[in-house]
Amino acid sequence: MFLANRIRKIRETQNLTQEDAAFICGISASAYGQIERNAHKSTYETLIKIANALNVSITFLIDTENETF
Q1: Distance from C-alpha of 20 to C-alpha of 2, rounded to nearest angstrom
Q2: Strand, coil or helix: what is 16?
Q3: CATH number of the domain at 3-60, out of 1.10.260.40, 2.40.30.170, 3.40.50.9100, 3.40.50.300?
Q4: 8 Å CB contact between 50 and 7
Q5: How far from 25 is each of 22, 48, 50, 52, 65, CA to CA, in Å?
Q6: Cβ atoms within 10 A of the Cβ of 46, count?
Q7: Fewer Cβ neighbours under 10 Å: the N or C end of the chain?
Q8: For the residues of 19-64, what is the DSSP string, one character each?
């Protein structure tokens, strides 16, 4: 599973919209959408913000081999 897909699936399991997640992360909805479409190379700092917004550890977020949420 690609990281972008994992981020989207985790967000969806928490019933958050992209706009909700972006607001919590402190980034624009457009930037967040690009991350989920993998059109943007995320920095480590941005991934930390996303992990915090989705209430998961950074390790869990980037564990693309683990398909459980």
Answers
A1: 22
A2: coil
A3: 1.10.260.40
A4: yes
A5: 5, 9, 6, 8, 24
A6: 17
A7: N
A8: HHHHHHHTS-HHHHHHHHTT-S---HHHHHHHHHHTT--HHHHH-T
Domains of the chain, by residue range, sit at 3-60
Listed in sequence order, the residues at least 6 apart from 17 whose beta carbon sits closer than 8 Å to its beta carbon are none
Residues 1 and 46: their CA atoms lie apart, in Å, by 19
pLDDT tens digits, residue range 30-54?
999 999 998 668 899 999 999 999 9
Could you tell me the pTM of the whole model? 0.86
